[in-house]
Specification:
By secondary structure, this protein is α/β, with parallel strands linked by helices. The longest helix is centred in the C-terminal third of the chain and has 18 residues. It contains eleven helices and eight strands. The strands form two sheets. A six-stranded mixed beta sheet has the order 3-5-4-6-8-7, with helices on both faces. About 5% of the residues have low confidence. α2 packs parallel to α7. It is globular, with a radius of gyration of 21 Å. Helix content is about 40%, strand content about 10%. Bound molecules: uracil (URA). Uracil (URA) binds next to α6.
Length: about 270
């Protein structure tokens, strides 16, 4: 057999994979590009019996609808609670990001928390795990909020955090979500906030400011209380930004202290 074509044993294959990950490769690539946006959505679809044949067919793509925004509003508006909202949002087929994502990322933490953090969108680790803020930025976020006595694993609402994102699906190459994609998710985000009913919202970065306030410019917005979804909200620089710009941590600390003071116990 041609040596180059010999199959790799398990240990060699794993060592090669680890070496590539250390070099920074974070996606497996095929020889030829795959247009994942052209692929049929793999989420289970309602299967309809074809009259007279006894066979079943599943539609290949989303059923066309006249107004995807209206559909999002109807789905979100009909939700009876968080679990139902998650199921309804996950079933929404009209956001193209769904087709490129591995997982639907809804939320983490304690829904009874007084503080809700609204992030941007899942990154690679979140897409793999199906939970928001579990990568490096998420670990920094956990440390930042632990410093003011808040944690996503806490049971007591006074010490708890609830974490969600504007987008539940990872954008390709972590690009910013498009305004049209954000608009489709907005009814779900509003309903999500209504169900959790936090005392304070943290708008983590530009995308969540744009979704909640219709404005970007986080470096100007941060540090000043605003109103979002009818709640007091604090725009903050995203922990991914803080990882790249450690000097900005000083201002982030001031914002955390503002949140602590607003909750009481400063
Ligand atoms: N960044 C976000 O805004 N949200 C996540 O879940 C992960 C990274």
């Amino acid at each position: 057999m041609d040596k180059a074509a010999a199959p790799l044993d398990f240990e060699t294959a794993r060592a090669l994979l680890e070496w590539q990950a250390e070099l920074g490769a974070d996606e497996p690539m095929l020889e030829a590009p795959v247009n994942r946006y052209g692929l049929a959505i793999e989420a289970p679809k309602p299967v309809r019996a074809v009259a007279g044949t006894g066979q079943a067919t599943a539609p290949a793509g989303p059923e066309p609808v006249e107004d995807p925004l209206q559909l999002a509003a109807e789905l979100a508006g009909g939700a009876t609670g968080l679990e139902d909202l998650a199921a309804r949002q996950a079933s929404y087929d009209h956001c193209a990001l769904k087709r490129g994502a591995r997982n639907f990322v809804f939320a983490d933490g304690n829904p009874a928390a007084r503080v809700l953090i609204l992030g941007e969108a899942p990154g690679r680790e979140e897409d793999i795990e199906g939970r928001p803020f579990v990568g490096r930025a998420g670990q920094l976020l956990d440390r930042m909020f632990a410093a003011i006595g808040l944690s996503r694993t806490a049971h007591h609402p006074e010490e708890a955090l609830y974490i969600t994102n504007v987008m539940p699906w990872r954008p390709p190459q972590n690009r910013d979500p498009e305004p049209a994609e954000i608009a489709m998710m907005l009814p779900f985000v509003k309903r999500h906030v209504d169900f959790v009913n936090p005392d304070v919202i943290v708008l983590m970065g530009n995308t969540s400011c744009f979704a909640a306030l219709g404005r970007k410019g986080i470096l100007r917005l941060r540090g000043t209380w605003v109103e979002a979804f009818g709640k007091p909200a604090m725009p903050m620089t995203h922990p991914a930004y803080l990882l790249r710009n450690p000097a900005a941590k000083r201002e982030a600390w001031a914002d955390l202290l503002e949140i602590r003071a607003r909750l009481g116990g400063a």
